[in-house]
Write a structure and sequence with these properties.
Elements (H helix, E strand, L loop, with lengths): L1 H12 L2 H22 L1 H7 L2 H22 L5 H9 L4 H25 L1 H8 L3 H27 L3 H24 L3 H28 L5 H11 L3 H21 L2 H14 L2 H21 L6 H21 L1 H8 L11 H23 L3 H26 L2 H28 L9 H18 L6 H17 L1 H12 L4
Helix pairs in contact: 2-9, 2-14, 4-8, 4-10, 4-12, 4-13, 5-6, 5-8, 6-8, 6-10, 8-10, 9-10, 12-13, 12-18, 12-19, 13-17, 14-15, 14-17, 15-17, 15-20, 15-22, 17-19, 18-19
């Protein structure tokens, strides 16, 4: 009891920025973590084909949302929350207005050609209309949660996130068990929960800001985000094209197995997103205040955290697959390592891209994304027919390495143009962390057929980490001491 009481007292003494950072981290992890942990139930209630169809629905939604919502809740919104700080409520409400306007326009276009579009994408009208609703509700929550993070208002965000995260899978399980059309039932259960919870957030934003339409902010958002469409499209294709291409080239059952592996590997993006969302306002503030020398130490620690978490997932991939799915999915273990390694580079490139977004270098962002996505499609087209769905994991890894490298080059060019930024990162340190991570991760592939070898290798790594714990925790304190 004394220990718990002491921890509570220390927590109360923390600055609001640190409290918010901790809560946002936990919230982001729980929000998607709860949904991921229910995967074993859905993989047993749905066949590999049905699970593949639901995954393909989400993949197509990610792609279509780029054109429907223009990803307004992404870069332009985060930038606007800082840039229009004195008129933030109006900016927020007008972005909500623009988002719903775009969704309605595209829904009308869909209704005019719904038969052709249904046949083209392979969905029925109920599923397609649900897709439009989900694109709207997702953006509504993203707008609201981003504003809460900037204002360091974490309590309500945590409550809403956890409630939705729990109710979604619970209702989904009930709906899937009761329905013959399990894919549609799964989709509609998500729609129902998001509409119930997120509509109120939409109304609240409009009420506070009083503006549905703002010529100034609508114009600003359109000019900023339209050139980024190729970037967001390429980024989404880089994440989603694998499953669509596997479905078409190999089959929906293989797409289902790959989707499970991809979902498990992308557990690491929970940590990616939690760290990124915590660091974003802080990094933008450092760039604005020309105090970029503070960034590199935090970034190195964050990369090490991401690397360790990915290594742990790779180490226990066989157990994870057995836990999350029946035997028909077991070959997914061979896809997890390369995709998990990819999530490390996803986090790395974001550290570099922050500078491109801040200085509105949209052409550079677009070029890096288009290169990565194009390379991914080309490599998939060559290697999936030869090696099957296993190849997609490695093509994803190669593409994200290229992606991170391009963003580093563009960040370096920006630093050369803005001398006040100085040298942000030490390339030698980045390479050292990355090479050690890749070497450890690839070695695990040779241990998957022997549990004794794999466990022994894991114990050895844990001993090394334990011996280096003091240095690690001293660096970790830097993150906890981040200030506004």
């Amino acid at each position: 009891m004394f220990v718990v009481s002491s921890m509570k007292e220390k927590y109360k003494e923390l600055p609001v920025q640190v409290k918010a950072s901790v809560c946002f981290f936990v919230c982001s992890f729980l929000q998607k973590g709860i949904a991921t942990l229910t995967t074993p139930i859905f993989t047993r209630l749905m066949s590999t084909t049905e699970y593949g169809q639901y995954s393909i629905f989400n993949s197509w939604m990610d792609i279509i949302a780029i054109f429907v919502t223009l990803r307004l809740s992404y870069g332009v919104y985060s930038q606007g929350l800082v840039k229009f700080e004195n008129d933030r409520n109006k900016f927020c409400s007008s972005m909500q207005g623009l988002n719903v306007f775009l969704c309605c326009i595209w829904l009308i276009i869909y209704m005019l050609w719904h038969n052709k579009l249904n046949r083209l994408l392979g969905f029925n009208s109920i599923q397609m209309i649900s897709m439009f609703v989900l694109m709207w509700t997702t953006a509504v929550f993203d707008f609201w949660s981003a504003e809460q993070r900037v204002r360091y208002k974490y309590k309500l965000l945590v409550c809403v996130s956890i409630m939705v995260s729990i109710i979604k899978p619970v209702l989904g399980i009930i709906a899937v068990k009761m329905s013959n059309d399990k894919v549609t039932a799964r989709i509609l259960s998500v729609v129902f929960v998001e509409v119930i919870f997120y509509t109120g957030l939409f109304i609240k934003h409009l009420y506070k800001g009083k503006f549905f339409f703002s010529k100034e902010y609508w114009k600003y958002a359109m000019i900023f985000n339209l050139p980024l469409i190729p970037h967001y499209l390429s980024q989404t294709l880089l994440n989603s094209a694998d499953r669509i291409m596997i479905s078409q080239m190999v089959g929906e059952d293989s797409a289902g197995i790959y989707s499970l592996a991809y979902s498990l590997a992308l557990l690491m993006t929970l940590i990616n997103n939690a760290l990124s969302n915590t660091m974003n306002p802080w990094i933008y503030k450092k760039i604005k205040d020309e105090r970029t020398d503070d960034i590199h130490s935090v970034a190195y620690v964050a990369l090490i955290i991401i690397a360790i978490c990915n290594i742990l997932l790779i180490a226990f991939a066989p157990e994870a697959v057995k836990l999350f799915a029946p035997k028909s999915y077991y070959n997914a273990i061979w896809v997890i390592p390369p995709v998990a390694m990819s999530t490390y580079f996803m986090f790395m490139y974001d550290l570099f891209a922050k500078f491109e977004f801040y200085y509105e270098q949209t052409v550079k962002i677009m070029l890096a994304s288009a290169t990565g996505a194009t390379l991914n499609i080309i490599l998939n087209s060559i290697f999936i027919p030869i090696f099957g769905y296993y190849a997609a994991g490695y093509t994803t890894l190669v593409c994200f390495i290229v992606y991170a490298l391009l963003h580093y080059i563009f960040m370096w060019q920006i630093c050369q143009s803005h001398k006040q930024l100085g040298k942000i990162y030490d390339l030698k340190i980045l390479l050292k962390i990355t090479c050690v991570f890749l070497a450890i991760s690839f070695l695990y592939l040779f241990t998957y057929k022997s549990n004794t070898l794999r466990y022994g290798y894991t114990i050895l790594l844990m001993i090394i980490i334990f011996k280096k714990r003091r240095a690690f925790f001293s660096y970790l304190k830097i993150i906890l001491n981040m200030k506004k």
